Amino acid sequence: AQNAETILASSPVVLRPGYSPIKMLSKGEKMKASVVGASASMNSVSITSPIQKAWSSRVRLLDMEPPMSPAAMSERSKVDSVHQEMKARNAQIRVLHGMFLEANSSLHTGDFNECIRRSLEAEDYAVRHFGSDHVQQVYINLMLGEAYTRVGLLDLAYSCLQKALGILKLSTASKEYGMYVSICYNDLGYVCRLMGKHGESLENYKSALGCKKETHGEDHPSLVSSLNNIGIAYEAQNKLTEALECFQKALVLSRGHFGEDAQITATTYSNIGNIYLLQGRFDIALKYYGKAR
Per DSSP, which regions of the chain are E strands? Predict the structure, then answer.
């Protein structure tokens, strides 16, 4: 029995359903244990064989979690702290996302003043929880830029769009936000055109086109609107040759991607007609106006 206890205590234990160390006893030992156990139960005394004692001791050792070293406890504390910070940050992002959706809904229903109010609240929340240069500010300022443009507050629109563009330029993930960089340049081009800053408008539209080419290539349908915008900016500066060249490039892409009957194709035909009209080539202008209908 002493040898069995020593061997069992030093050997690995594998627990299996229905397995008991009592099965390791011989037939005679089982009968002895049964008799002794029955006799002991009458006196409320637990009698256990040496093998059972060894087994119970071994299982208790396996159930105990070994104490953690100070270094392990410190590392676990750090992991728990990071986990809690991530949960808090995700909760803050969900709140900000909800505020953004409310502002965006107001924008698309035409309630521009309400959109501005909600966007400013979202901006304040984002500054407090994420900082003034966080990428979340890009979406808010783009929306503010559009809302301010719709109500005629062009200086404020210009300021918001410049802020959004500045954040994107500083962001290490600016390439991942290429679409938003293009939107910033495009919206700035439009605001500058409304403000009469045609030279700056042209440069912004060119930058928007460059972003799209870098992201999508030279034959992407999104280039059609940018080429039309650049043509309009040239036209505003009375650079008719350059304007006509841009409109003709836009027409080729538009017909190829959208077809002859698409609205964007009709708009491009009309833009070309305007250039020929300004050049005094009325017959050709009428031809293009006819295709625009």
Answer: none
